[in-house]
Specification:
The protein is an all-alpha fold. The protein has one domain. Helix content is 77%, strand content 0%. Keywords: Cell membrane, Membrane, Transmembrane, Transmembrane helix. Pfam families: VTT_dom. This is VTT domain-containing protein.
């Protein structure tokens, strides 16, 4: 039976890591359960422990490409067919907030929702549904992708000194941080929703 540490170490050192990371980032828009964040955390932490800064730059680039391609696909799905993204509610939550702000402040709308659970799917498909022009969507998605990639890569750099390049520890730290970020963002959303309901007139 293969040692999990050996298997994860092979993945993090594999020449297929960059295209697999880019593909995972493309897919985690419509499929938020795809673990692109832990892979990026872990690979960055491992590269930092090895002193390979160019690999960190390459990981950042692969994640950025995957983010931009995934956003383009979600935007196209939002424009072309409501059935493709039928699971996204149009009358409440992130999507409703984004639609209220997209035309006036598209960069703020996409950046503000990018780190929230499900925020990428809701915000980018909403941009397609409201027919946000490409001249506004492109800089907004570039800005949100840069913020997301910088945040995730930065967390990987912070994790590196604690895992010392151990593949299994890096992957576990990545999973825990992904759960922590998602749980914190989800809790913040629930608090804000509760406050809005409490302040709303009876």
């Amino acid at each position: 039976m293969t040692d999990p540490t050996t298997l994860i170490g092979y993945l993090l050192d594999s020449p297929w890591l960059l295209p697999l990371l880019a593909l995972a980032v493309v897919c985690d828009g419509p499929l938020p359960l795809v673990p692109s964040e832990p892979v990026l955390f872990s690979a960055t932490a491992s590269a930092l422990a090895d002193g390979d800064r160019w690999r960190i730059v390459a990981l950042f680039g692969a994640a950025l490409v995957g983010s931009l391609v995934g956003d383009a696909l979600l935007y196209g799905a939002g424009r072309s067919s409501n059935r493709v993204v039928a699971g996204v509610r149009r009358d409440a939550g992130i999507g409703a907030w984004v639609r209220r702000h997209l035309h006036r402040r598209p960069i703020v709308a996409l950046v503000a929702t990018r780190l929230l659970p499900g925020g990428r799917l809701a915000s980018v498909t909403a941009a397609g549904r409201v027919r946000l022009p490409l001249r506004a969507f492109v800089p907004a998605t570039v800005a949100s992708s840069l913020v997301w990639c910088s945040w995730m890569t930065g967390i990987g750099v912070l994790v590196g000194p604690f895992t010392h390049g151990d593949p299994l520890l890096s992957m576990l730290a990545g999973l825990l941080l992904a759960l922590l970020v998602g749980g914190t963002a989800g809790a913040a959303r629930r608090v804000l929703r509760y406050r809005r309901r409490a302040l709303a007139p009876a």
